[in-house]
Amino acid sequence: MSTVAAPQTSDPLAPGTGRVEGAGFVEEPVDPTLDLFNEITRLKEEKNAVLLAHYYQESAIQDLADYIGDSLGLAREAADTDADKIVFCGVHFMAETAKILNPEKQVLLPDLNAGCSLADTCPADEFAEWLEDYPDHKVITYVNSTAAVKALSDVTCTSSSAAHIIEQFPEDQPLIFAPDKNLGAYLNRETGRDMVLWDGVCIVHETFSEKKLMRLKAKHPQAEVLAHPECREATLRHADFIGSTSQIRRRAKEGEPGTFIVATEEGILHQMQKDAPENELIPAEPESGCNCSQCPHMRLNTLEKLYLNLEHEAPEVTMEEDIRQQALEPIERMMEMSAAVK
Ligand code: 13P
Ligand code: SF4
Which of ligand 2's atoms lies nearest the C-alpha of 230? Predict the structure, then answer.
């Protein structure tokens, strides 16, 4: 018998989503002799499902995906798809965005526990209370947040579109940026604004070691350092290029072949290596002894859970309609304001 978690709450003042009662995924043994690649491909076709995956998913899931991208690309793809179902291999806020844009479609997520440390740092009730101190501010919210937090915002943004969106506000308009203080501080430096920042961090990007990065640079003096803007300033100050996952990928693909030190979740190396096998790719290292920089939330999705997700069409992302509608507005504003962003 299989079991699946209960749907999550979308109460605007409830704590962050990504907290799930029960398993959060179908609990059922998978026959180890099954060719999961073929089975998942068959189920996708049979059910007219599109598989959208983020770069931080394990390589096998990336290889099965119909589309791989950064948060903005994935949201655009979700908005445009004519598939009947979306199976989202990423984290909860990404699948939730797909559902907000596609209320009539079933949006599947292999493990509902795949949350995000940034979304978790910003519970909607605390955020709403905090906003009361800034009545004149416009609220720009990173998509790495719950639907309930998005619903309290003027516009959402992604790492690829944030600066472009900020620059469309008049210079004298006070702004709030939430929930990533590292990304917010980077954007303040880039745009010359003085946005008030919520105190959240990504547990993966926060931990890259400046000392180890300097050692890697000394060992590979020709290497270009590519970093995600969720990294701390101490990491970003050594970067030659700062961008979203798709922008990092494009930079290495379209530039001269060479060596690249990559300061983001190491899942992205899979596509970067496929794009340009001649490039040498070196993952930046975290402070801790281990050399891996994997997002523990993203990695909750596995091939087995993906197979069971498609087979049982569960678990799926659900939310209350009033929250969906409130969160839709700032997401649609983001789509309009970032139409020129690649
Ligand atoms: P991107 O939009 O750059 O893919 O970032 C998503 C994310 O969660 C980074 O940690
Ligand atoms: Fe969230 Fe960080 Fe994981 Fe991205 S890498 S999903 S920001 S915890």
Answer: 7
Both 211 and 191 in a single domain? Answer: no
Contact 94, 121 (CB under 8 A): no
Tokens read off for 233 = 């300033």
Residue 98: name the closest of 341, 324, 342, 276 by CA. Answer: 324
- 154 and 220 fall within a common domain: no
Is there a single domain that holds both residue 193 and residue 125? yes
What is the sign of the dihedral through the CA atoms of 282, 211, 246 and 327?
A: positive
Which tens digits make up the pLDDT trace of 146-183?
999 999 999 999 999 999 999 999 999 999 999 999 99
Ligand 2, atom 1, lies closest to the CA of 116
Buried b (16+ CB within 10 A) or exposed e, 139-156: bbbbbbbbbbbbbbbbbb
Please list the alpha-helical segments (H only) found in 147-287.
147-150, 162-166, 181-191, 210-219, 233-236, 245-254, 268-275
The model's pTM:
0.93
Asked if 190 and 135 sit in the same domain, the reply is: yes
Ligand at shortest distance from the CA of 229: 1
**Whole domain around residue 154: which residue ranges?**
118-197
When divided into structural domains, the chain yields a total of 2
Sign of the torsion formed by the C-alpha atoms of 337, 82, 268 and 177: positive
